[in-house]
Amino acid sequence: MLMRLTKLFSIMLLIQLFLSGCIPSHQQENNQEQQPSRERIIQEEKESENQPEEKKMNLQLDIKEELFHSVADWLDDETVLYIVNNAEGSEVHTYNLYTGDTKLFYKSEDPIVQMKANEDNSLFFVQTSPSSYEAELLFLNREGDIQYQTEIESYELSFTWNQVNPDQLFVTSFNEDWSYSTKIIDVHNDLIMENPVDIPFIQWINNNHVSYIKWDQEEPSLTAPLYMYNLKDHTETLLSEQVVANTNFPNLITTIELIDENGTAVVRFYDSDNQEKLAEMSTRLVALYSDWSIPYHDLDKEENLFYIFEVNEEKNDFTLVSFSPDTTEKKVIFESIENFQMKLSPNGEFALYGPRFEKILDLNNQSVEELITLN
User: Fold this and answer.
1) CATH number of the domain that residue 223 is part of
2) Chain-centre distance of CA 32, in angstroms?
3) Largest Cα–Cα distance in the chain?
């Protein structure tokens, strides 16, 4: 009897051990899902290591007020060019926004009046002023070396880079009585073409065409028609009426056109190749004494986003908005911000901002930073 009970107990114990070891297959799968494998952990660690850390700007550039002229332009996505004046003349320095490193880019014995990069930031136009009636025009490469230079008589000078051909520049030189002459400078071919069009302010459309607002000097008005001019056959074509401002980009013609005398306006976008209207954005303008205040604007070429300062309905405050000509989506980027000049970085993530570009706009994080500290 005792032997039978012992045998029965042993059998029941074996059954219990067997049953406790039999875990349903779906529970095993769940446990495997809850506990990542060693291979998965290693893969996740590698992916985490490969993700770049967000770079932080290191803005610590202090300049004496009496020496600082302006921040001139972008050298690349991370570096700006700024101008300082001293007793020996003017100097252009580079400044890296992340490392804080600065170095001499170009030095002139004469005062530097203005400086601007071409479309692909491969050439930098510098105007110096040896005298009140003379302008020296310099074209520097990315290393600060002179590629071409010339001198012209000029009391005031205006210029526009060709956004399609980065080697061409349209220049207007004004005399003291505001008479003027126009030129096209071709840096690559060391060529100057005199008086291609008898209009002082133009915008390039392509290598053969420019656009301009044809203001009536005899009867000043708040708007004027926009024309396209053919540089080869010297013909002009009407593009639009009631235009207040015109700015062109590599693939876009943009206009600000007035709708009514209260300042209701519209920004229109036209295709550069066929001049067909692509989109339009309603906006408002602020009246000055005899014309309209043109809000500053620029285009992010990578994302095809148009940025413009827009006044509110009460016309006492501005916002910075972006507009997509592709989707017509409009977004507010900054509220309660002043209508100062702006220049987008090549990648469109930042913008130089302020009367002397002394600030920087972080468009992704929607913050305004002091680029230059004056002391």
Assistant:
1) 2.130.10.10
2) 51
3) 132
Residue 38: predicted pLDDT: 60
Which residues constitute the domain of residue 250?
A: 208-339
Residue 332 has pLDDT above 90, yes or no: yes
**DSSP 8-state secondary structure symbol assigned to residue 324:** -
What single string gives the DSSP state of each residue in 227-262? EEEETTT--EEEEEEEEEEEEE-SSEEEEEEE-STT
Q: What value, to the nearest 5°, has the Cα angle with vertex 326 and ends 321 and 328?
A: 45
213 vs 224: CA distance, rounded Å: 6
Domain annotation covers residue 215: yes
- Spatial separation of the C-alpha atoms in residues 19 and 285, rounded to whole Å: 83
Closest C-alpha among 259, 279, 258 to residue 268:
279
Q: Mean pLDDT throughout 31-37?
A: 50
Mean pLDDT of 19-30: 43
DSSP 178-234: S-EEEEEEETTTTEEEE-SSS-SS-EESSSSEEEEE---SSS--S-EEEEEEETTT-
Q: pTM, whole model, 2 decimals?
A: 0.85
- Residue 49 pLDDT level (bands cut at 50, 70, 90): low
185 found inside a domain: no
Average pLDDT over the chain, rounded to whole? 88
Element (H, E) at 30: helix 25-34
Report how far residue 18's alpha carbon sits from residue 26's, in angstroms, rounded to the nearest whole number.
18
Gap between the Cα atoms of 199 and 304, Å rounded: 29
Tokens read off for 187 = 């840096």
